[in-house]
Amino acid sequence: MKKEEYSYIIVESYKPKRISGLHGEIHIKPIAGQEPYTQDMHVECSKVLSNEYPVGTKFKIKAKITNREGSKPFAYSHYSWSFEVL
Predict the structure, then answer these.
(1) Domain of 37: which CATH number?
(2) Which residues of 20-46 are buried (b: 16+ CB within 10 A; e: fewer)?
(3) Which of 3, 39, 40, 59 is 20 to 30 A from 67 via CA?
(4) Residue-wise pLDDT tens for the chain (86 aa)?
């Protein structure tokens, strides 16, 4: 898969054991079995997913793998894009 390509993936909200260096209490991660998207990968997306649904809710989003200079790869989905609650 090329880095620039977007694909639909399933993600879920969770509370990380350690939040040091993270923003907020609830985060989003890909579910297992969607390589190259891995469960330890952070997901940047609309805050609606983490703020307005119970922890453990699964969503279908359109995302791509990217990274900022000096950071590890993460999944990116524009905050204004629609998503599906599963």
Answers:
(1) 2.40.50
(2) eeeeeebbbbbeeebeebeeebbbebb
(3) 59
(4) 445 689 999 999 999 876 655 567 899 999 999 999 999 998 999 999 999 999 999 999 999 999 877 778 999 999 999 999 99
